[in-house]
């Protein structure tokens, strides 16, 4: 639709140029006499020339807007309003009021000129309005697409930051442990805490012999041998046989 509006602007520019040149030649009475337009010649002559300059300026604006897409709709709207209003004035004065008096050929010419100006002007206004609505819709769509693209980019950045954070890659080892472990790394045993007299068992809290890893009695400091059953004499550090009373106990 915009190419059609450009064509209409070129036609409007040609019409403005034609009338502008005609009014610029207002001081030439012979030309108006040959065209049988003596009755509509502007007096004084400089007023006609001023009107001609204004029309030539409108023609230049219409030509420029036909090339520059940013001015096409607005210039077509302005030139359209100028044209249809001029057509109405021509039809009312020359055909309705018959002022000034013109002959038959002049009346026909005035009627044709008025109708052409009216049709072209209204067509330019409607086309410019349609093109303007399409441009606004395209701008709104571009703004919406830009906002959607920004939101999508922000979501991608948030997802990338979440996937690369250490907390997102760790999983809980068990309920109540309060620790998390990277699934890619093997499960390691609990760390043994260092102690001046030996290692400390993280489960029981007892002291372990650093050489053998066996438990050490916290009272006597003797190593406790791992047994299936029975008890250890704290004095000798040996297992007491439950079947032999007093076995393994230190003599008193």
TrEMBL record:
Keywords: Membrane, Transmembrane, Transmembrane helix. It comes from the Bacteria. The chain crosses the membrane at residues 7-26, 46-66, 78-96, 108-127. Residues 162-171 have a biased composition (Polar residues). The keyword Membrane applies. Residues 147-160 have a biased composition (Basic and acidic residues). Residues 138-252 are annotated as: Disordered. This is Transmembrane protein. It comes from Caballeronia arvi.
